[in-house]
Automatic annotation (TrEMBL):
<feature type="domain" description="Histidine kinase">
    <location>
        <begin position="41"/>
        <end position="258"/>
    </location>
</feature>
<protein>
    <recommendedName>
        <fullName>histidine kinase</fullName>
    </recommendedName>
</protein>
Amino acid sequence: FFNKETVDVVNDGTTIGKVIILKNITEFQQLDEAKTNFIATISHELKTPISSIKMSLKLLEDARIGDVNSEQRQLLQNIDDDTRRLLQITGELLDLAQVETGKINLNFGNTHPQNIVNYAVQAVKFIADQKQITIKINCPDSLPDVQADLDKTTWVLINLLSNAVKYSASKSTIELTVKRHKDMLEFSVKDYGQGIDARYLSRIFERYFKVPGAGLDKTGTGLGLAIAKDFIEAQGGKIGVESQEGEGSRFFYTLKVV
Ligand code: ADP
């Protein structure tokens, strides 16, 4: 593997030639691949025991475990929250490793956008209810079906919706709209939350990027939007954001109409 760089040779303001610098980056490339494989293996290995902790917790909860005082109940709740978080992180790392090795396996199907919307809204209902946030849906019956990888697309929408909930105040509203633009459908999630400082807007889809100091909730990994971008672009769609600090944000992505 070579990295190619071209430098102009300038004499008195005129370009008199070009120098091509080739750097052998084979070792770096291999190191990078090794790292990605390592991440994939580790996250995969972690997923099973974490899932089983989660199952045991669920069993404990269902059995109503006799006498548990409020302090113990709180501790169980904390374990449950942290386990959910760990599962999310390992899931994101696995997705990331998949993306980095160029192995985004797409599984296309045709579906009405309402199916994607309803599923995603259902998935974030719990966290939205906790903050008494209303999600207004505008996705008319008359829209055509889309051609998409349904799991990945739903994952993206859940991510945008949960970010909107995370970065909005209690009792606010989120608008989820699906519109047709020529041969594409645009899904958009608009919130009236804290918005994003214009200085950081162009970096929001970078891996591990989090707006400095912005987190009401500091538990994010900064990976969600980076993976969302890979998932949407792999399907031939576009993803973007408009935002005004202090007023809110609108994230949107497009998918092909059948
Ligand atoms: P995270 O796991 O940190 O939420 P994301 O990739 O989903 O990672 O988002 C990256 C960063 O973009 C977040 O840390 C946050 O600073 C900012 N962000 C994302 N969505 C919103 C939103 N709806 N409103 C304000 N800021 C947002």
